[in-house]
Structure formats: C-alpha cells, structure tokens
C-alpha cells in the first residue's frame, strides 16, 4: 500500500478499548445486545469478541470516572447489521436494556442511535459499508 509515496504494509483496525464504570454491567450489555463472547475476564478488565472477531477491551474505571464527550479521541463505535430485521432486533434489545433509541437515514444508510450503560454513544447501521460503500459523512456524526 502506498502512503506519502512510500510503499508500506497496510494495517487494519482490530480492537477498541472502552473505559467503563461497572465492568459486569458493561460486559453483560455488550454480550446480550451485540452477541459478543467473553474471551478473557480478569479483575478490572474483560476482553470481548464481537461477531466477526473485532475485539472490545472493557476496562473498569469506577463510578466517579469522567466521560468527556465531544473532545478529541474516539467518540463511539458504529456497528452494522445485514438486514432491516437485524436492525429492528438490535433496536428492541437496546430499548429493553437502556430505553430510548433514535433512528435516521443518511446517504441511503439507516442508523439506530443509542447509548450504552455509561452513556457512550452507539450507532448501528444497515446496510454495512461492505454492502453499500458510504457516499457521505452524515452530519449526525459531527454536529
């Protein structure tokens, strides 16, 4: 792969790290809503595997830790499902766990927006970028 005129190996994103207030609650949330499996569980940390192999490291930070939103750095995870039925299924699972969800469409893609138990924003998209490459950066992502 070329970058800045130099040939180099391509890298891909494989994992994320989320700081959470209550590890058990967050582990159950991601396991139940997104069908993640718990690969490693240690005091203060867990490694979850999402379908497809993406890794989510959950790190306990306690109930008084800050969660600045809108600053520099990772803001949220975007998940994708293969069907409208899958989107409805995730919507129901999120409503059962956290209550409110919102939906919108941008560039032919349907998005479901919600928050995890710590208030971290979650988006679920249909169709996936593999099925419909993105043609716009939706304003909902940065406004």
Quick gist of this model?
This is VOC family protein. With 143 residues, this protein is of the alpha+beta class. The chain has two helices and ten strands.
Mean pLDDT score = 87
The CATH homology group name of the largest domain: 2,3-Dihydroxybiphenyl 1,2-Dioxygenase, domain 1
Rg, please?
16 Å
Question: What's the domain count?
Answer: 2
CATH class of the largest domain: Alpha Beta
Helix content: 10-25%
DSSP, total strands: 10
Q: Give the ordered list of helices and strands.
A: EEEHEEEEHEEE
Question: Regions with pLDDT < 50 over 5+ consecutive residues?
Answer: none
Instruction: Going across the biggest sheet, name each strand in turn.
Output: 3-6-5-4
Classification by helices and strands:
alpha+beta
Overall form? globular
The total count of helices amounts to 2
CATH architecture of the largest domain: Roll
- How much of the sequence lies in strands comes to 25-35%
Largest sheet: 4 strands, mixed
CATH-derived topology of the largest domain: 2,3-Dihydroxybiphenyl 1,2-Dioxygenase, domain 1
N→C terminal distance: 33 Å
What do these coordinates show?
Helices cover 19% and strands 35% of the residues. It is of the alpha+beta class and 143 residues long. It folds into two domains: 1-63, Signal recognition particle alu RNA binding heterodimer, srp9/1 (2-Layer Sandwich); 75-143, 2,3-Dihydroxybiphenyl 1,2-Dioxygenase, domain 1 (Roll), CATH 3.10.180.10. The chain has a four-stranded mixed beta sheet with strand order 3-6-5-4, with helices on one face. Strands 7-10-9-8 form a four-stranded mixed beta sheet, with helices on one face. Strands 1-2 form a two-stranded antiparallel sheet. A hairpin with a 2-residue loop joins strand 8 (102-106) and strand 9 (109-115). Helix 1 runs antiparallel to helix 2. The radius of gyration is 16 Å and the shape is globular.
